[in-house]
Amino acid sequence: MKRNRTRTxxxxxxxxxxxxxxxxxxxxxxxxxxxxxxxxxxxxxxxQIVYRPEAIGAPASDFARPWIANVQVVDLDQxxxxxxxxxxxxxxxxxWIRQNPRGVFREQIIAEAIPGPVHVWAADVNHTGRLDVLVxxxxxxxxxxxxxxxxxxxxxxxxxxxxxxxxxxxxxxVTDVRGANLMEHADGRLDLVVGxxxxxxGETRWMENKGDWQFESHTVNTLSGTIHTPVADFDGDGxxxxxxxxxxxxxxxxxxxxxxxxxxxxxxxxxAKSEDYGTSGLSVADVNxxxxxxxxxxxxxxxxxxxxxxxxxHGMQWLENKGxxxxxxxxxxxxxxxxxxxxxxxxxxxxxxxxxxSGFSDWSNPEAPTxxxxxxxxxxxxxxxVLARTPxxxxxxxxxxxxxxxxxxxxxxxxxASPTREQMSSVTLxxxx
Length: 433
Known about the structure:
Elements: E1 26-28, E2 51-56, E3 68-74, E4 83-88, E5 93-99, E6 105-111, E7 117-123, E8 132-137, E9 149-156, E10 162-171, E11 174-180, E12 191-196, E13 203-211, E14 214-221, E15 226-228, E16 231-232, E17 241-246, E18 252-260, E19 263-271, E20 279-285, E21 294-299, E22 315-323, E23 326-334, E24 338-344, E25 353-358, E26 371-376, E27 382-388, E28 394-400, E29 409-414, E30 427-432
Antiparallel strand pairs: 1-6, 2-30, 3-4, 4-5, 5-6, 7-8, 8-9, 9-10, 11-12, 12-13, 13-14, 15-17, 16-17, 17-18, 18-19, 20-21, 21-22, 22-23, 24-25, 25-26, 26-27, 28-29, 29-30
């Protein structure tokens, strides 16, 4: 069987530059339209949905080459304004773009010297009332089987400062971590779900929170290539389950049903028929709004080939939760280099639309889309709409109500794994016009 030894997920490329030892603070009182991005004009036949880009946070010129591995929208300091967290894999740092007051964004580094951070997640781990930041660290991010992965928690001390705690070290390279009360602790403390891409040897585990920052690990899968590990009550029994998407030669979505008392029942929810499928992301969304959490999945990995780039089978799909642990596969649409599956009501019609960005495409073609939406008519018939053609190399996206008006705002990050002729971008905010 072929081994995809060159593959590494988009937010898992090598970064060897040293990071600055100084906290960086940027005050952006004005947000210019991103110089490398233009709103996309629609034809008369296409649905009318246009997003206008604005640069936020540190400008791209502050990075030798921006490698934004992951963005998340969350009100980290719980002041009523949604913020942005992100990983800068080239600078080995975790950054907080804080919004306060409304519409004013200031960036600061909240952790440095974290080797290859590729995913962040905010959660109140020990039920203190403050959101901590969970960080997945791949160590050296080029393909490697050495046990150089790590897991960090940035303990939120006062909504201003964060204490870095290393919970795992010298393990297969870590790509995802989520907080969830899997054990139904009475005091509300959270356990952790951890995905480890590794290389030849990977892992999926959960870590039981014993209190006082002590955790006990339980391995539930030893396949390499784990990318994302979203958490939800998939079977509706009131206990939190989790899933994982595993790439490399497996190209499968796995489920782990919570049986209680620390026991999890594994199953394969869906698998591609080709090891070249290029799985690139997994997230939870109730697409058909039937009260059961579905899964949305992208395949667009372009690192698996001697000549990287798009493939005609890349795109977006959703796995419909039929109950009883059964999921039905639905292909939504084609999209070269698809990453970061995201769901929100983008057009305001009360249905759940889908979104993805592109990290790999034919960037010599100025018409190649870099952000796509699929608009839902309420019957799960999806109309594809191009939202952007610049900037290119977008590898991560998140959606949230940053303006406080109930209208979803998109946040994206670019990761320049290959040269670009256009002006580079870092973190961009997209508002619907």
